[in-house]
Amino acid sequence: MVLFVTLSSGCAARHGRPLVGGTVVPNPSGTISGTVTNSAGTPLEARRVSAIDMTTEQRYDATTSKEGGYTIKVPP
């Protein structure tokens, strides 16, 4: 799976791996998050951010908050 994130200045991911024990988390998912800002560093509100699975063409969208932040849940 290839994901494209538009209008983002930061990105983080969490994978469905064992936390501390040894068992795999059922139905693992990932999270993409970040903050959208303009060139002056001012957060941009109400901007759409998309992640696209290039294999299935499935879109995962989010809209930025007042502080420019967004979070998108995606499959592994």
Overall description:
- By secondary structure, the chain is mainly β.
- It is 0% helix and 29% strand.
- The protein contains no helices and four strands.
- The chain has strands at residues 30-35, 48-52, 59-63, 69-74.
- Strands 1-4 form a two-stranded antiparallel ribbon. The protein has a two-stranded antiparallel sheet with strand order 2-3.
- The chain is elongated, with a radius of gyration of 14 Å.
- The relative contact order is 0.32.
- The model is unreliable at 1-19 (pLDDT under 50).
Question: Could you give the count of β-strands?
Answer: 4
Portion of residues in beta strands equals: 25-35%
List the uncertain runs.
Answer: 1-19
**Major sheet: size, sense and barrel closure?**
2 strands, antiparallel
What best-fitting shape do the alpha-carbon axes yield?
elongated
Structural class: mainly beta
Compute the separation of the termini in Å: 8 Å
SSE topology string: EEEE
Q: Approximately how much helix is present in the residues?
A: under 10%
Mean model confidence by pLDDT: 78
From the structure above, extract its key features.
disordered N terminus, single chain, 76 residues, mainly beta, elongated, two-stranded antiparallel ribbon, 0% helix, 4 strands
Short structural description:
With 76 residues, the protein is mainly β.
